């Protein structure tokens, strides 16, 4: 018996659409990360990008549980002394809701060149429309 390792050229990629309307942020992000990494495929290979493309629509209608809308903060630093900036979940959702989902998914991917390549296959849109209809994406049902 031999162990099968997928090659980068052999991978057949599919497209999936996740509707984030009234869904919990962490649940949507973890499902997207699994698909991006390829863990839902039988030919999953940890060191090869075998994942599929994920389109998330209605990013502005995603929910969080508990008091996270007020207490969850996103930080960034300019690199200069006193350059720490922060914003709450509500402020981030008002300015750029797609970045909130991208940040959540990126936290669930490896912090390597492979993880960055997998993260580029994530497409997040604020409204219900997306420009990827030519790829015939399959709609994923998230549990309500």
Write the layout of secondary structure elements.
Elements: E1 15-19, H1 25-37, E2 53-57, H2 68-71, E3 73-77, E4 84-88, H3 89-95, H4 97-106, H5 113-119, E5 122-124, E6 138-140
Parallel strand pairs: 1-2, 1-6, 2-5
Antiparallel strand pairs: 3-4
Helix pairs in contact: 1-4, 3-4
Describe this protein with a few key phrases.
two-stranded antiparallel sheet; alpha/beta; 144 residues; four-stranded parallel β-sheet; 5 helices
Written account of the structure:
The chain has five helices and six strands, in the order E-H-E-H-E-E-H-H-H-E-E. By secondary structure, it is α/β, with parallel strands linked by helices. The strands form two sheets. The chain has a four-stranded parallel β-sheet with strand order 5-2-1-6, with helices on one face. A two-stranded antiparallel ribbon has the order 3-4. Helix 1 (25-37) links the parallel strand 1 (15-19) and strand 2 (53-57). The radius of gyration is 17 Å and the shape is globular. The N and C termini lie far apart (42 Å).
